[in-house]
Amino acid sequence: MVHAADIQDRDGAKIVFRKIGKYFKKLRVVWADGAYAGKLVSWVNRYHRRTLQIVKRTDHLKRFKVIPKRWIVERTFSWLYKYRRLRADYEYHIDTSEAMVYIAMTHIMVRRLSKK
Fold first, then answer.
1. Please, which residues bridge with residue 31 across strands?
2. Quick check: 2 and 101 in contact, CB under 8 A?
3. Distance, CA of 34 to CA of 43 (rounded, Å)
4. DSSP character for 66?
5. Strands 29-32, 51-54: pairing kind
6. What predicted TM-score, i.e. pTM, was given to this entire model?
7. Model confidence over 45-75: pLDDT tens digits?
8. 17: nearest Cα among 45, 59, 56
9. Where does residue 69 fall: left (phi above 0), alpha (psi -120 to 50 degrees), or beta otherwise?
């Protein structure tokens, strides 16, 4: 889901959880970074009966280290960044931005499926 920049990430997460409830009934664990820590964790558990696990990075490391689960999101962003229209905010409407993400991910999936 794409939302306006003036919506705080934690508030945007609540919108996402409200939308996915009817579509992903078997989804039990959701991973998120430290920006989503706090009251949102208990809210998700209480109102949506899911577990929101916060994947924190370690600040004391001076070199790069792969953090479990977090690399999945970073890798996906890297794939999306290859599409020029997703590199900057070219779209005027949020719906168009969200559609461009769907188109890019569909293109990625179709390319991978056609290789087999």
1. 53
2. yes
3. 16
4. P
5. parallel
6. 0.68
7. 999 999 999 887 776 767 777 777 778 878 8
8. 45
9. left
2-26 pLDDT, tens digit per residue, is 888 888 888 999 998 998 888 888 9
DSSP 49: -
Measured in whole angstroms, the distance separating CA 114 from the mean position of its chain's CA atoms is 26
Q: What share of the chain is helix, strand, coil (3-state, %, to 5)?
A: 55, 5, 40
CA distance 55 to 69: 7
Report the C-alpha gap between 37 and 52 in whole angstroms. Answer: 9
What is the four-CA torsion angle of 5, 95, 48, 56, rounded to 10 degrees?
A: -40
- Residue pair 19/3 in contact (Cβ under 8 Å)? The answer is no
Cβ contacts of residue 4 below 8 Å, gap of 6+? 94
CB atoms within 10 A of CB 91: 15
Q: What residue type is 102 in one-letter code?
A: Y
Residue showing tokens 């998700």:
44
Give me the residue label for tokens 């949506």: 48
* Token pair 């590199």: residue: 87
